[in-house]
């Protein structure tokens, strides 16, 4: 399913030096797949707590996707933002890195 989603978005990013964000990384499997499928110079950033879900979400218990705080080891230039989405996304958007992407 992820592969289908990525292929469908290729036309949106293939002509741009853009930014693609992945929300929820866990052990990095889907992040690696995105990296392999993106044959363009699109910056890839991942957002995750790396300590698990703070609350129950659907059928997943609090703590699901716990990685012992470890960020996945993935080659190439990938950027990870640690923390809860409501903290890490606004911090990134306010950063000088995000301002350079705009």
**Residues in helices, as a percent range:** 25-40%
**From the 3D coordinates, which CATH architecture would you assign?**
3-Layer(aba) Sandwich
| Low-pLDDT segments | none
Largest sheet: 3 strands, parallel
How would you classify the helix and strand content by structural class? alpha/beta
Radius of gyration: 14 Å
Could you describe the 3D structure shown?
With 102 residues, the chain is an alpha/beta fold. It has a single domain (2-101), classed as Rossmann fold (3-Layer(aba) Sandwich). 36% of the residues lie in helices and 16% in strands. It is built from four helices and three strands. Strands 1-2-3 form a three-stranded parallel sheet. It is globular, with a radius of gyration of 14 Å. The termini are far apart. The model has no long low-confidence stretch (mean pLDDT 78).
List keywords for this structure.
3-stranded parallel β-sheet; 102 residues; alpha/beta; globular; Rossmann fold; 3 strands; 4 helices
Secondary structure layout plus pairing:
Blueprint: H1 2-13, E1 19-23, H2 29-37, E2 43-48, E3 78-82, H3 85-94, H4 96-101
Parallel strand pairs: 1-2, 2-3
Helix pairs in contact: 1-2
In short:
The protein has 102 residues and is an alpha/beta fold. The chain has 4 helices and 3 strands. The longest helix is centred in the first third of the chain and has 12 residues.
